[in-house]
Amino acid sequence: MALKELNRQELLRDLALCGCGLADERSTRFAAEGAHDPTATRYFVLEQLFAQLDLDESSHLLDVGCGKGRALAYFAEAKLPGCATGVELDPDLARTAQAWTENFEQLSVIEGSALSVPLRRFTHFYLFNPFDSPILEQFVEKIEAETRRPITLCHMSDNGENYLFMGRSGWRLQSEGWIHIHQGAPVFGCPQHWSIWKFDPAAR
User: Fold this and answer.
1) 3-state secondary structure of 186
2) How many CB atoms lie within 10 A of CB 57?
3) Domain that holds residue 169
4) pTM of the entire predicted model
5) Domain count of the chain?
6) Over the range 82-96, which residues count as b (16 or more CB within 10 Å of their CB) and which as e?
7) CA 129 → CA 137, 154, 163, distances in Å?
């Protein structure tokens, strides 16, 4: 499948559920705060990764750096159990996500920094390269400090940040892999590494 056709199909899925396109090509205005450019996760990636998260009716997923809310859209489209919240530093992107998620009882969006969000209520976390490595490390430390029950974290990036989780007390790698080619066409500028981790505070 050509990249142009994949983009068209994803736009159609966005429009059907949300009434607007959820991809955003703009550079972030918050690079000084460690934020990366907004990049909507491909639907086929979400299908692959979210199938491994063991979500149930008690689950509460936090999409860190949700942008306009593509991961939230897939959560609703797939009728996944539980609820999902996005947090987005860019006010413009957050307002777009807030506007369309108002139609879904199981979805919500917070405008602000992920480092300011209380984490105890969340059971699952999804991060598609939302910020620089030092901020990611702060966020991992925040999870360790605030969570009181086992959580699942899915992380994807192209810059080898997997090492930040390795060897940390209480963290266990569940699965990992690479995504670059889809139906014969490259869909990212470079291969993306994904990993799914379990963290159990009682195991520290």
Assistant:
1) strand
2) 7
3) 3-17+41-203
4) 0.96
5) 1
6) bbbbbbbbbeebbeb
7) 12, 11, 14
